[in-house]
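Homework help board

Subject: predicted structure for assignment chain

Our instructor gave us this sequence and asked us to write out the predicted structure in token form, then describe one feature. I got the tokens but I'm not sure how to describe them. Can anyone check?
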Amino acid sequence: KIIAGKKLIIWDLDGVIAKLNIDWPSCRAETRKYLEAKYGLVFSESERVDKMEETVLQRFGEYELRQLIPIRRKYEQSGIENSILNRKLIDLIKKWHDQGKILTICSNNLKATVKAFLDFFNLQEPFSFSVGMDDTYRPKPCIDGCQIILNRFKEINKKDILFVGDTYESDGKTAEKLG
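My token output:
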């Protein structure tokens, strides 16, 4: 019933379509070490990478945030091959694609990671468009990434869009902001 009348589905990638096997603890540690050495910023061991990046963006701007991307890229790229697909969801994705639904991805992962994932698992066809964190440098729950998708598919009314995510903190808040 949820899908009835929906024309555009915006998916999150990691945690929904698949569990990417990214070594986030090591990525967090390397990011923390870099930020402490460069800016004197101190974060807890459990602080999410995207939250640290958001702090850098707010305090120092996009140029400085871009300096962190190679750290993230290294860990994200190494986690693709051992990802665990949500097989039941993949079948549903293919079914909805066959029904003419427009399927897109808005991810806090890098765009290159999303592309490499889709290529590796041969899932390019069902997805019409994808947006990664580096398309806006503003991770969800900021709506900028999803807004790129909405601008691309302007003809679709917001009531005809379904957002599928795994966490309230990033995905749920994004959906709420989108209306």
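Reply (TA_rk): Your tokens look well-formed. For the description, you could write something like this. DSSP finds eight helices and six strands in the chain. That's the kind of observation they're looking for.
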